[in-house]
Amino acid sequence: MLFFYIRHGDPVYNPNQLTPLGERQAEAVAKRLSRYGIDKIYSSPSNRAVQTAKPTCEILKKEMSLLDFSDEALAYQEFTILQENGRKEWVFAAKEIRRLFLDESVRKLGLEWYNHPAFAGTRYKEGMERIGAASDKLFAELGYEHIPGSGSYKAVRPNNDRIALFAHGGFGRAFMSHLLDIPYPMFSTHFELAHTGMTVVEFRDEGGIAIPNVLTYGSDSHIYKEGLPTFHYNRIHF
Roughly what angle, to the nearest 10 degrees, separates helices 47-60 and 20-34? Predict the structure, then answer.
């Protein structure tokens, strides 16, 4: 099985929709996905994700299924901190949290990083458990049962399906962290997704066990092919 994770296109967050550039990005990723086909298409219920998935659904004549647990509005309540200016900020973007995530006292806790005393009173554990449980349910339905903490899955129904999920950058950090059993502080600090960046994970049966193998992370080759500008994390071109 190949699992495709695609972040939504360039957005306006209020109202929640794609910009004209985001619409072009969505069309570009649809052309890319249509080249080899997708068997099932999932999306966050958030409008910017739905709008990004729509061109792929139209080209491939597929219906999308909405996954409520992937809505970034939920992750935003769990993985943000309130700054002194009264604004919420993602934990992976907050300088003080980023540095704490790299501290040995956090890293040595591994997948139970949220039990660090500095995170008492936060919703980090709640968020990881919510996303983890829903993710495991999804992949079990797709034929692969997660073996928690092992970085592997039991291949109960090995298949060659191609599955796509259109969702978000903030949610995606926790989701991919759980999928790969890589501690969230490490993953969220070191990995970034551009708008419509595509991550492809292979689940290959190895005698009843599948070890998720990231074939590409955050690829935006479809953006280059269509001659669209690359603008990563809303701050840098390359």
Answer: 40
